[in-house]
């Protein structure tokens, strides 16, 4: 271990190999041991229920409350005056700190206000909010009641919100009057109202956090003002014990089909895994500070802005701003300096954006980053160039060797599948690799027939079942889809949907998705959803969306459409860009639509999206299927794709 490695354990004998071996050899004993770091109402005596394999449930006889673990227990231990959450908002020029006592007070009173209006254990609540503390407060208040929250990212449009409301059938919706982007104020309330107009399912009431930058009009008898509710609720409410296997939240993510998947997270397994990860992976201890620059609408935000830091008694920084433009590329360094951040976590794309504006990292040198111990990057592949630049920047700014840790995970897993486990042992890094499987994950790489491939050979990445605690419990309301999508392709394994390889040293290399999911600026999007929006335009007869390489955002969506005769390509292209923005949301970031005469297909009618993407990215050996219907269509497509740089 080097000096800069965060100290996280008492037992100096522990190595990554010994911990991973213990987790693999006896997962039940390993995780029951880890479960002791959580305060249970009834301690689990059984680690794993495998009666329903391949669906497993962790800690079936344990009961707990996740909110009580995140807040009450720190207060009870005498740490109530420590800072739990720092709200740092350059877009509103605000910095506000909540101690554990203050956060508990507001969460508990808001939970009572919800309970007074009929929210009880098992009810669903949709949260559609910008990066304000009330978003975290709403999540924790639901957890306190055993209600199931589902946060929908603010960059999604009304239609996507409506789809989620219909799937989840929430009893209440919690929102905000507005969000503040770099150059404009986004009114959330009209988007929510529009979603409720489209949706079939109708919640009983909504709660709105009114912000001074823009106040929303509230509907009598339906919309309640958050501040009024709190003012009228002086007393909090006790946490409601739930089974470890009860749901904590549903978080929708993109899949191959246009229908979003509600990833279901249980309470107990998640709490155990996150608590374990804070010390062992991130090397963080109570009293430390973590700054995760992401959004509560994504899994990284759920786990490492809200739940994990608070569970571990670590101060979390909730940042309402961007890497650049709020006001410039100094923003991240300023936050790290001002709040003495020990671990900084963001997506590689955010570092690329910072680098573009401040290539020599001048801003890093003027900041005091003496508290910083490590940088974690996740959400997309960390390209070696961005890794090298970030490492050099942090070393120059601190005069120390700060590890830059690529970590690989998914909404489904809830915490890293692979990482450099800094709290156990700092392993040598290899650029382009998120290092090694996290203890608890047993990874394999196979060919399409399911045969293990040799080290260094790319294939489908699988994880042997059972997965460790904290990973998805199911798809909301659809165990069958859970099994058919993830658990039945190769018996006894979880299909990650990513391809990659393991090298001779057991390092993982993740190369990309094997399905129609694309990753734009660390946001996961389904090309199917974009295609569905485009196909809704009356002049479009056929369309295909692919993700093409982009220097900054990793991938960007590009659409190809065949139009009905006499349609004007120029006008329709612009209409389609606007349509995707209004139907899917600004986050889809579709900026380019090409009108073509035909799409390349196989004789059975399958559009050759992969071939199109390979040509677009300039990959050397593009495989053109022998079943191609008309090779001349592909030649024409080559010409269109080569116009990318124009
Ligand atoms: N609410 C409403 N609109 C939003 C939004 C939100 N929460 N977040 C983004 N948008 C809008 C943006 O304003 C932008 O609109 P524009 O087309 O009018 O400019 C559009 O969506 C595209 O946004 P994005 O591509 O994300 O650009 P950005 O400048 O807003 O942010 C990054 C750039 C790098 C900061 C951002 O993409 C990011 O944080 N990515 C990392 C995501 C992440 O943490 N992933 C971890 C894995 S879960
Ligand atoms: P999400 O569910 O939005 O977190 O997206 C998960 C997907 O992002 C994964 O399946 C990967 O394709 C990609 N991803 C996340 N982190 C990494 C990483 N460190 N390296 C490579 N790909 C990653």
UniProtKB/TrEMBL annotation:
InterPro entries documented for this protein: ACAS_N (IPR032387), AMP-bd_C (IPR025110), AMP-bd_C_sf (IPR045851), AMP-binding_CS (IPR020845), AMP-dep_synth/lig_dom (IPR000873), ANL_N_sf (IPR042099)
Domain AMP-binding enzyme C-terminal: 530-606
UniProt xrefs under Pfam families: ACAS_N (PF16177), AMP-binding (PF00501), AMP-binding_C (PF13193)
Limits of the AMP-dependent synthetase/ligase domain: 79-462
Stated name of the protein: Acetyl-coenzyme A synthetase
Annotated family: Belongs to the ATP-dependent AMP-binding enzyme family.
Domain Acetyl-coenzyme A synthetase N-terminal residues, every copy: 16-70
Keyword Nucleus listed: no
EC number(s) per entry: 6.2.1.1
Key words of the record: Ligase
GO MF annotations, alphabetized: acetate-CoA ligase activity; propionate-CoA ligase activity
């Amino acid at each position: 271990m080097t000096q800069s490695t965060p100290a996280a354990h008492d037992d100096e004998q522990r190595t990554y190999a010994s911990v991973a071996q213990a987790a693999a050899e006896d997962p039940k004993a390993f995780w029951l041991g880890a479960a002791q770091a959580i305060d249970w109402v009834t301690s689990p005596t059984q680690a794993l229920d495998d009666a329903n394999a391949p669906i497993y449930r962790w800690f079936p006889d344990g009961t707990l409350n996740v909110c009580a673990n995140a807040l009450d227990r720190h207060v009870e231990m005498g740490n109530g005056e420590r800072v739990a959450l720092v709200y740092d908002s350059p877009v509103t020029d605000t910095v506000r700190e909540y101690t554990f006592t203050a956060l508990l007070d507001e969460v508990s009173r808001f939970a009572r206000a919800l309970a007074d209006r009929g929210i009880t254990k098992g009810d669903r609540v949709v949260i559609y909010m910008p990066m304000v503390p009330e978003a975290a407060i709403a999540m924790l208040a639901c957890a306190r009641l055993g209600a199931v929250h589902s946060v929908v990212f603010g960059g999604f449009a009304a239609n996507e919100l409506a789809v989620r409301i219909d799937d989840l059938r929430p009893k209440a919706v919690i929102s905000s009057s507005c969000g503040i982007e770099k150059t404009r104020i986004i009114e959330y309330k009209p988007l929510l109202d529009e979603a409720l107009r489209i949706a079939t399912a109708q919640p009983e009431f909504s709660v709105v956090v009114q912000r001074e930058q823009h106040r929303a009009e509230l509907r009598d008898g339906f919309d309640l003002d958050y501040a009024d509710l709190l003012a009228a609720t002086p007393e909090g409410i006790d946490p409601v014990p739930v089974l470890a296997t009860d749901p904590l939240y549903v978080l929708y993510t993109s899949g191959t089909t246009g229908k979003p998947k509600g990833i279901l997270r249980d309470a107990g397994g998640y709490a155990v895994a996150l608590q374990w990860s804070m010390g062992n992976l991130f090397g963080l201890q109570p009293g430390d500070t973590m700054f995760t620059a992401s959004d509560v609408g994504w899994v990284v935000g759920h786990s490492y802005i809200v739940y994990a830091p608070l569970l571990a008694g670590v101060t979390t920084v909730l940042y309402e701003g961007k890497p650049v433009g709020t006001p410039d590329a100094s923003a991240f360094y300023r936050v790290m300096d001002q709040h003495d951040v020990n671990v900084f976590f963001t997506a590689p794309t955010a570092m690329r954006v910072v680098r573009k504006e401040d290539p020599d990292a001048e801003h890093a040198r003027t900041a005091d980053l003496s508290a910083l111990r490590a940088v974690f990057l996740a959400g997309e592949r960390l390209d070696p160039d961005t890794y090298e630049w970030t490492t050099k920047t942090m070393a120059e700014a601190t005069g120390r060797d700060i590890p830059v840790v690529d970590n690989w995970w998914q909404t489904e897993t809830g915490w890293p599948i692979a990482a450099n486990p800094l709290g156990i042992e700092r392993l040598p890094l290899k650029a382009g690799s998120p290092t090694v499987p996290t203890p608890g994950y047993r990874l394999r790489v196979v060919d399409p027939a399911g045969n293990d491939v040799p080290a260094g050979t790319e294939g489908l990445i699988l994880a042997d079942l059972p997965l460790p605690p904290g990973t998805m419990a199911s798809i909301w309301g659809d165990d069958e889809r859970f099994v058919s999508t993830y658990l039945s392709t190769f018996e006894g394994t979880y299909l990650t949907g990513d391809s990659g390889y393991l090298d001779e040293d057991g390092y993982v290399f993740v190369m990309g998705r094997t399905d129609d999911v694309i990753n734009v600026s660390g946001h996961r999007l389904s090309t199917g959803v974009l295609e569905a929006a485009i196909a809704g335009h009356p002049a479009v007869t056929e369309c295909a969306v692919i993700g093409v390489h982009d220097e900054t955002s990793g991938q960007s969506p590009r659409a190809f459409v065949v139009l009905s005769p006499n349609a004007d390509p120029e006008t329709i292209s612009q209409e389609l860009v606007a349509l995707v923005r209004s139907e899917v949301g600004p986050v889809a970031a579709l900026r380019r639509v090409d009108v073509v005469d035909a799409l390349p297909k196989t004789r059975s009618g399958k559009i050759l999206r992969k071939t199109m993407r390979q040509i677009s990215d300039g990959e050397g050996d593009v495989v053109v299927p022998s079943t191609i219907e008309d090779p001349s269509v592909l030649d024409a497509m080559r010409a269109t794709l080569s116009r990318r740089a124009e």
